[in-house]
Amino acid sequence: MRASQSTERTSRTPSIVERIREHRGGTPFSVEFYPPRNEVEEQRLWRAVRTFEQMHPAFVSMTYGAGGSTRDRTVRIAGQLAQETTLLPVAHLTAVNHSLDELRGLVGSYADRGIVNLLALRGDPPGDPLGNWVKHPEGLEYAEELVRLIRELGDFHVGVASFPEGHYRAASLEEDTRFLLGTLRAGAEYSITQMFFEVDDYLRLRDRVVAADPVQGEKPIIPGIMPITSLRQVRKIVELSGSQIPAHIEERLARAAGNGPEEDKAEVRKVGMELATTMCERLIDEGAPCLHFCTLNFAKATREVLANLGMAAVPA
Ligand code: FAD
């Protein structure tokens, strides 16, 4: 670790792969948070953090926003997670609107706060995630370059994103696999997938990576799961990621939502919990290395799915 005073602390911090592999007693789980936008959201985040702390996730990740104050909050809160909780944080960072110098500075800020686990992402165009990607004139084009940069800066443990349905900008699944392999060969130790709904898509991604490169295929592909609690919300999230809800799941959720002016939240939630539980059961059977839950900074839904699975010490 070259960046400043945190050497002693960070040298004892485990990597995500170590944390997953040393886990005993079933499949580990992990959770994703996003940087809160205001004081009320921040209080909610900390309530979720304290609940999850009692459930011993393998790690927690903190996403990186499109700009300004949410970016500062990612750095600050990831630091607080490292220093003020028992959790192992992974801080996301993206190449969006950052020069190389800024990216180096950002990695240094994480190191200063005792964070050695980073998720390297290209990110999406701010404002319109599906719009044209424009690289910063002094920045980076692809996540693979960010992986290399972080590795050059010190003893960081780097993860990347993977896409069970293929990234929406990739021309084919084969091309998508080739680019994922590029990030793994550049030194990424694992990947976390975009949230998905069909376990078969995850299994095929895993098969493609193993078939294309058995060595890289040893690296964990951690499935991203979102326990659905609102149809409107999941539609929006999926749309912004350039993905789609499979028709049979959309139909089930729409039936539960009903035809009223407002969706029937309780019914949607019931179906959402069932879907997430069934997916997780199959992922566990198929040997997924960890279950990574997108929490939207709420603990309740994830806790319920974990309780259904009989996993973790679940506080009341
Ligand atoms: P890349 O690997 O750089 O891929 C971007 C596009 O370029 C893809 O279409 C890929 O196929 C193509 N490509 C890659 N390499 C090459 C190459 N050598 N030549 C030609 N084409 C290439 N976004 C945020 O803003 N903040 C976050 O915190 C965040 N967290 C995420 C966490 C997870 C688990 C996931 C799955 C996504 C996350 N995202 C986040 C969204 C992510 O930034 C977008 O999905 C983005 O479009 C792709 O990022 P990437 O890192 O996979 O990029």
UniProtKB/TrEMBL annotation:
Reaction equation(s) it catalyzes: (6S)-5-methyl-5,6,7,8-tetrahydrofolate + NAD(+) = (6R)-5,10-methylene-5,6,7,8-tetrahydrofolate + NADH + H(+)
Pathway: Amino-acid biosynthesis; L-methionine biosynthesis via de novo pathway; One-carbon metabolism; tetrahydrofolate interconversion
GO MF annotations, alphabetized: FAD binding; methylenetetrahydrofolate reductase (NADH) activity
Name of the protein described by the UniProt record: Methylenetetrahydrofolate reductase
Enzyme class per UniProt: oxidoreductase
NCBIfam families: fadh2 (TIGR00676)
Entry's family note: Belongs to the methylenetetrahydrofolate reductase family.
GO biological-process terms attached to the record: methionine biosynthetic process; tetrahydrofolate interconversion
EC number in record: 1.5.1.54
Keywords: Amino-acid biosynthesis, FAD, Flavoprotein, Methionine biosynthesis, NAD, Oxidoreductase
Native source species: Lolliginicoccus lacisalsi
Entry keyword Amino-acid biosynthesis: yes
Organism superkingdom: Bacteria
Gene Ontology cellular-component annotations: cytosol
Pfam family, one: MTHFR
Cofactors, names only: FAD
